[in-house]
Amino acid sequence: MWVSRFARVKKLKHKIAEQLCKRGILRSGEDDVLLVFSRKIYPEINPEPERQIMDRLRDAIFTDTDQVEPRTVVLLSLAKSTNVLKVNFDKKKLKSRKDRIERIINGEVTGKATKEAIEAMQAAVVVAIMFSAIY
Fold it and tell me: What is the pLDDT of residue 29?
């Protein structure tokens, strides 16, 4: 249901990028294509938030800790479902940790209370993304 709502949001990529510009992570610019067309571009100016996200994912996947933050679980779930993990991590290493990833996503690593918090957070993330994309 929420995926179809995202599909209807016009210029979703640009709306999200503008929010990241306001936070000082990206900057907005224009680029010429073949000297005929122009397009909006959003180069990264602060790589730290992305590095922190990758570190959190790496720690969750490639260590055996039982302490995985709910927001990291949500992030891992989104990254797995959109195939972002395969782009950013070695595929063979990911395959060897497939069971751990599934256990984390299903809340088995974090316990029942955290699993409930994760489910609530996942719902909140969907609402927040839809709200920020629409307005």
Answer: 92
